[in-house]
Design a protein that fits this description.
The chain is α+β, with helices and mostly antiparallel strands and 157 residues long. The chain has helices spanning 17-29, 42-52, 73-79, 92-104, 131-141, and strands at residues 3-10, 33-36, 59-64, 108-115, 126-130, 151-156. The model has no long low-confidence stretch (mean pLDDT 89).
């Protein structure tokens, strides 16, 4: 099964091609790929929009490990593998996600983390937290089988 990490960022300024290129370049620098808006497969885009439909987002995103994938399994799993896991501050994925937030300065952000989204993403537990709290939960998740991080995260900015 695949794990999906997608969501929306509502930003103050209009989304430009230059901004999208900058975000994609940042993703590749950290070993990831970023699908934005219409680049996201229709099924995944519908799921994201269903969750964030109460407000129109400025940017929809889906983080992947290869340009032809729509999930993040391989690279993220490797970074968080228990026996060779780097310290929190050195995880490339975490640096990348922080950079997305630094570059876009969103007014509102929703992150969706779920496994096996082929049949839809409901019901998902909804949570509200700081970005670092979400990343810390993701970091700890690989070490604890009783710890569930799947859900919808409204990121408090």
């Amino acid at each position: 099964m695949c794990e999906y990490l997608a969501g929306s960022l509502r930003i103050r300024t209009p989304t430009t091609d230059a901004l999208k290129k900058e975000l994609k370049a940042e993703a590749q620098q950290h070993g990831y790929y970023l699908q934005l808006d219409d680049e996201i497969s229709l099924n995944k885009r519908k799921e994201i929009l269903r969750i964030v439909s109460h407000e129109p987002p400025s940017i929809l995103f889906n983080i992947t490990t290869k340009s032809t994938y729509d999930c993040i399994d391989e690279t993220l799993n490797n970074e968080l593998e228990y026996f060779k896991k780097k310290p929190f501050e050195e995880i490339a994925f975490f640096k990348f996600v922080r950079r997305i937030f630094t570059i876009t300065q969103p007014e509102k952000a929703v992150i969706i983390f779920v496994e096996g989204a082929e049949t839809g993403w409901f019901p998902l537990k909804k949570r509200e937290c700081l970005l670092n709290d979400f990343l810390a939960a993701l970091y700890e998740f690989r070490d604890r089988h009783d710890y569930d991080v799947e859900g919808i995260y409204n990121i408090v900015l």
